[in-house]
Amino acid sequence: MNEGKRWKTKLWSAAGRTELEKLALAPWASRRRQELLELLDRLNPTIGELTAAVEQEAQKRPEVLRLMTHPGVGPLTALAYVLIIGTPARFPRGKQIGTYVGMIPSEDSSAGKQRLGHISRQGNSLLRYLLVEAAQAAVRTNPDWRHRYIHLAMRRHKSIAKVALGRRLAIRLYWMWRNSSEYSPSLEFGSYAGQLATRHGVK
Known about the structure:
Elements: H1 14-22, H2 27-59, H3 62-67, H4 75-85, H5 95-100, E1 105-110, E2 113-119, H6 125-141, H7 143-155, H8 158-178
Helix pairs in contact: 2-4, 4-6, 6-7, 6-8, 7-8
């Protein structure tokens, strides 16, 4: 970035790496660049192996494949969701998922006034992270999610909007799993969002 190069994800392509290695840097910066690239080369095979294992496990589970039909949701997020939640039967209502994963704002009420604070952060931190990241992926690829994100970000704040969409995604995945339904945009952000019909038309 100091050299005026802002490649973003293109930096990690073969051409991007070649350009990065060509940059003339001060001696210590050059050494640090080389050390980090060597570390990346050692980690990439392990990352590839783990990614392949996740994808293979996802293919064995119909419920995971079903959740992967939702925009932004890949095998890692879907598999983690299924393994951590266990079964949708544990939760009578979708909103309880938000509480379980710690994405509901904490409440401080006194003198008849209700104040909402930061999210509770109860539950599994990995699942919270994956849900927020998947929601951001949905924002980049799906017009409905992008519109909703922009609307929330303008009203509140970007960080709040990201968490809110992560919570929305958690609830959507719950209904898809519970109703054995693949993704459908028909009830995306309406008053009954998430309550998908099953394949047999039963709510």
